[in-house]
Structures are given as C-alpha cells and as structure tokens.
Amino acid sequence: MLSATCHCGRVRLSAPAPPPYRNECHCTVCYKYGAVWGYYPKTDVTITIDGSSTPATDPAFSSTEPLPGLAYYVRGDIAKTGESPGASPRGHLAFARCAHCGCMTHWVGVEPDYAENPKQRLGINTRLMDKADLVGVEHRVTEGPRM
Ligand SMILES: [Zn+2]
Ligand SMILES: [Zn+2]
To answer: What is the DSSP letter of 122?
Structure first.
C-alpha cells in the first residue's frame, strides 16, 4: 500500500501500488498547480480525512460537494471527453485540495455519468507520495487537454 499525504497530514489517499507512470500535465490549470498526476481506477483508491475513510467508489467521493476537509475548484473551461468540438463547456472535473494546508491532493470527475461509474479513473498528485515509493516510475510531460 502506498500513500499520498498532504503537508498537514489531514488528507491521505491510499493506492495498492505506484502508478505505471507520472504525468506532469502542462495544461492551463495543472501547470499552475505544479501537480504530477498518477492515474488510478476508483476501485483502487481510498481517501482518509481526519481519520475517516471513504472508498473512491463511494458516490460521496465524486459528488459536486467536497467531502468535509476538502475544498474544490471545479474546472469548467473544457468540453467533456466525447463532446463535440464547440460544445459549451461544463464543469465536470473537480481539483481537490486539503481545506487546511492547501495541498492539491487529487482530481475527480463530478458529472453524473462519471460519478456513477466505479471504473472511471481519478488522478492522485504524486508529489504527495514518498519519493522512495516512486523510484523507477516513468515521468512524462504532456500538454494535456487543449482549450
Ligand atoms: Zn493538509
Ligand atoms: Zn492538466
């Protein structure tokens, strides 16, 4: 088991293994956050906030209302995957941070079709993982979704 923990320690995400690769996404928002994502299916991840654990498959994890102890920025500037080009942007990805120390912990889809699908992926900020746990994990840099 491997953990990503915010600076103050109130928020922790657990996954069974290191991600297959880390993605330093240079899209407009990730670049500013400085996050380096590891992608996991929701079935692999549990979040623990102030000692209270919630599996990522729990609908509360993908709700538009953040779990207590988290704060959200819901991205609304890009079309959802599969949406036709030019479709009006909708808020569908929530970038979550610890409400106390502000560390960016993860992103999760909060649209109903995503929220209800336990096979969907989420991104954990691997900068919150122990460096020793990430030795040998490929580091990619991508441009991310275009505007
Ligand atoms: Zn914190
Ligand atoms: Zn990005």
So the answer is: E
Residues 101/5, Cβ–Cβ less than 8 Å:
no
Q: What is the second-level CATH architecture of the domain 2-142?
A: Beta Complex (2.170)
113 token code pair: 């079709």
In the predicted model, is pLDDT for residue 145 greater than 90? no
Ligand 1 center from residue 71 Cα (angstroms) = 11
pLDDT tens for each residue of 85-134: 555 445 588 999 999 999 999 999 988 777 777 778 999 999 999 999 99
- Quick one: which of 16, 14, 60, 22 has its CA closest to 39? 22
Neighbours of ion ligand 2 (CB under 5 A): 25, 27, 30, 144
The verdict on pTM exceeding 0.85 is yes
Could you state, in order of their start, the residue ranges of all structural domains in the chain? 2-142
- Ligand 2 centroid from CA 74, angstroms: 13
> Which of helix, strand or coil describes residue 2?
strand
Tokens 């929220």 belong to 115
